[in-house]
Automatic annotation (TrEMBL), chain A:
InterPro entries, per database record: 2Fe-2S_ferredoxin-like_sf (IPR036010), 2Fe-2S_ferredoxin-type (IPR001041), 2Fe2S_fd_BS (IPR006058), Beta-grasp_dom_sf (IPR012675), FAD-bd_FR_type (IPR017927), FNR_nucleotide-bd (IPR039261), MRET (IPR050415), OxRdtase_FAD/NAD-bd (IPR001433)
Residues in FAD-binding FR-type domain copies: 5-106
Protein known as: Diguanylate cyclase
Domain of life where this protein originates: Bacteria
Domain 2Fe-2S ferredoxin-type: 232-323
TrEMBL record, chain B:
Taxonomic lineage from the root: Bacteria, Pseudomonadati, Pseudomonadota, Alphaproteobacteria, Hyphomicrobiales
Name of the protein described by the UniProt record: Rieske (2Fe-2S) protein
PROSITE patterns: RIESKE (PS51296)
MF GO annotations: 2 iron, 2 sulfur cluster binding; metal ion binding; oxidoreductase activity
Gene3D superfamilies cross-referenced by the UniProt entry: Naphthalene 1,2-dioxygenase Alpha Subunit, Chain A, domain 1 (3.90.380.10), Rieske [2Fe-2S] iron-sulphur domain (2.102.10.10)
Pfam families assigned: Rieske (PF00355), VanA_C (PF19112)
């Protein structure tokens, strides 16, 4: 159970485009905040067309000059958050929340492998700099679709030099995760941030290599999946409800919007508190959580509503609501 | 932001005697951080945040299980790096689940902990406390855990030994201390108070240690290492035998050692020892010296203990900006200046790595 978060008003001090669709934002909180450790993120209340939406962004490097730096990729399908960020003008005010770290870096390991895919470079960037400063033994493998998508690659080259290796997908370069794991010291740690597929592969190869689960560290803000975000329908026979989930809303948000009583914890696919049973699905369910095991996901009998969605069509689900009058009383928008 | 704390976090603090950390969970608070310590199977000490990720139950109430700690409430297991390695009733482990692991190192028979930014925890910065190793110098030592005063009051106490005359009359106290001039020097991270008392009657304690008739030269060379270690080179030698010039062969040398770790803003753990380099195999002398310092309220340090706690209580009751300073406080003021400088450095902005413009 998270502590209630304190709103902090802030100002967008400057921006810079790192790539055609990744923009760096420098955010200046009105009052000085604590320093942060690598892997930390802030939550930003992002203005969108509808109501503002809460989005988590990893912080780039230490907070030492009173500014928080984040990098945001403009995504057609990121549930409206990135577009809202990209519309912000320098000087505009915004609301943020105190930084937290759920992707903490361990110091003192004999060896580290950092794996970044696309915009997943943001927390990894801060880690690479910190490890470099600590004179640690590490390698950073960073993959993106095209050369110009490699945000922060120049900065990284300057700071960590040879420890960085870049992989450009459209030039046929791929990270051989399996052999990289094999080269890592047996007491080493692997940190991953990237698309869901990269994480899944890394997890699989990590456990096949017999490495301790606790030494694979990853973070996912649950905004990528096997399919692009598309609208779909939810049906809840118990409550006689039918709900539309727009492309830019999560299932959990749509359920809450419709007045369905939900509990949740992390809202990023980790804790399993928002899970509901699937009764029937007309299309494939795109499981984007890290709560279920591979086998559980394959059974397709439950869904993490905060991050997972249907590729299209309709999913029929159940809720734990056993109120005697099964008719749902809240207004349905 | 909260008012800055009076202690730097980016520093090594003595946290336990090495022999106190074994295959069981021990709790300590250092600089306001609750920590659980234990010894891993390979002999290394581990230090974790003493609050379970799940519902904050102190992990020190749980159990050691190999190199891991099992929480005593719902059974989450954390490894010595603070990573959760087991969660009940689910097939996966929430990747966010972890507790902070603090850098720790063992040196000079003590366990040192770094409560600040782990990236800066360089073992080369552990204070020089080699007198405590039990080799060239011997002494038993102990700890006043949870001494009820700001750690800086202990530093003040040790950096000005004129108090010996009044607090420790009859043992190491002597009017000569207040009469002799002293000199205070400093470097970027040390402050040293030097006092020589030439051609005096030895005070009772030192007379017994020397066990030779005659007047003596007595020295007190007390060095502070920021932020919280004090080592006092003390002793006497027969007068006119060249001790001030460096020949201590006609005397006896001891050292008082103090590593003072803030527990909270108004409490601290005071790791102390009194060591000597003469009659090193004399176990009876070792225990006599131990009792001379701490002995059910009658030792020299027991006397300081009483003064320090009473002083802290008075500070709380007297809202005036705490002290007026005297000439004798020069050593303490330099020590506090070095602490303040560390605090300022910790808060100072440094340039960032990526900028928008
Ligand atoms: S709220 Fe934690 S998994 Fe959905
Ligand atoms: S409080 Fe530790 S497992 Fe629940
Ligand atoms: Fe004293």
């Amino acid at each position: 159970m998270a502590k209630p978060m304190e709103r902090i008003s802030a100002r967008l001090r400057a921006t810079r485009d790192l790539t055609p669709d990744v923009r760096l934002f420098e955010i200046e909180p009105d009052r000085p905040l604590v320093n942060v450790t690598p892997g930390s993120h802030i939550d930003v209340l992002v203005p969108t067309d509808g109501r503002p939406q809460l989005r988590s962004y990893s912080l780039l490097g230490p907070y030492t000059d009173g500014l928080y730096r984040i990098a945001v990729k403009r995504l057609a399908s990121s549930r409206g958050g990135s577009a809202g960020m990209w519309r912000l003008k320098v000087g505009e005010r915004l609301t943020i929340f105190e930084p937290r770290n759920s992707f903490e870096l361990s110091y003192g390991r004999p060896d580290y492998l950092l794996l970044a895919g696309g915009i997943g470079i943001t927390p990894i960037y801060a880690m690479a700099l910190a490890l470099n400063q600590a004179n640690a033994n590490f390698r950073l493998l960073y993959a993106a679709h095209s050369r110009r998508d490699l945000a922060l690659a120049d900065e990284l080259t300057t700071y960590v030099g040879e420890r960085l290796q870049l992989f450009v997908g459209e030039e046929g370069q791929r990270i051989d995760i399996g052999s990289e794991i094999a080269q890592l010291d047996t007491r080493g740690e692997l940190y991953v941030c990237g698309p869901f597929g990269m994480l899944e592969t890394a997890k699989q190869l990590w456990s096949q290599a017999g490495r301790p689960t606790a030494h694979l560290r990853y973070e996912t803000f649950g905004n990528t999946g096997g399919f692009a975000d598309a609208p779909f329908k939810i049906r809840i026979p118990r409550l006689s409800l039918e709900i539309d989930v727009p492309a830019h809303r999560s299932m959990l948000e749509a359920l809450e919007d419709a007045g369905v009583d939900m509990i949740f914890g992390c809202r990023r696919g980790e804790c399993g508190l928002c899970v509901l049973p699937i009764l029937e699905a007309s299309a494939e369910v795109d499981h984007r959580d890290v709560f279920f095991s591979g086998e559980e996901r394959a059974m397709n009998s439950k869904v993490c509503t905060c991050v997972s969605r249907a590729a299209s069509g309709c999913v029929t689900i159940d809720t734990p609501d056993r109120t005697p009058d099964q008719r749902h009383s809240s207004k349905v928008s | 932001m909260n008012a800055p704390k009076p202690f730097p976090l980016n520093a090594w603090y003595a946290t336990a005697w090495s022999h106190e950390i074994a295959r069981e969970l021990s709790a300590r608070t250092i600089c306001g951080k609750n920590v659980v310590l234990y010894r891993r199977l390979d002999g290394a000490v581990a230090a974790l945040e003493d609050a379970c990720w799940h519902r904050l139950l102190p992990l020190s109430l749980g159990h050691l299980k190999g190199d891991d700690v099992r929480c005593g409430y719902h059974g989450l297991v954390f490894n010595s790096a603070g990573r959760c390695s087991y969660m009940p009733a689910q097939k996966t482990i929430n990747p966010s689940a972890c507790v902070r692991a603090y850098p720790v190192a063992e040196r000079h028979r003590l366990v040192w902990l770094w409560p600040g930014d782990p990236a800066l925890a360089d073992p080369a910065k552990i204070p020089d406390f080699h007198w405590n190793d039990g080799k060239q110098w011997v002494g038993e030592g102990g700890t006043f855990y949870q001494l009820k005063c700001d750690y800086r009051l202990v530093i003040d106490n040790l950096m000005d030994l004129t108090h010996e005359t009044y607090v420790h009359a009859g043992s190491i106290g002597d009017e000569a201390i207040t009469a002799a001039p002293f000199e205070v020097t400093h470097t970027g991270n040390t402050a040293t108070m030097t006092r020589w008392m030439i051609d005096i009657e030895p005070p009772p304690f030192w007379g017994r240690q020397l066990a030779r008739p005659g007047r003596v030269d007595r020295w007190q060379i007390v060095t502070f290492q920021a932020p919280s270690v004090v080592v006092g080179d003390v002793g006497v030698a027969l007068t006119h035998t060249g001790a001030p010039q460096g020949d201590r062969s006609q005397g006896v040398s001891g050292a008082f050692l103090a590593a003072i770790s803030p527990e909270t803003e108004t409490t601290c753990h005071y790791f102390w020892n009194f060591v000597r380099n003469y009659r090193k195999d004399d176990a009876q002398l070792t225990s006599e010296l131990q009792r001379a310092h701490v002995y059910g309220g009658a030792g020299v340090y027991d006397q300081d203990h009483r003064v320090l706690e009473a002083q802290q209580a008075a500070i709380a009751n007297n809202p005036r900006s705490p002290f007026y300073d005297l000439n004798i406080d020069a050593g303490a003021l330099w020590a506090r200046r070095l602490i303040d400088r560390m605090l300022a450095d910790e808060q100072a902005p440094v340039s960032a790595n990526v900028a928008a413009e």
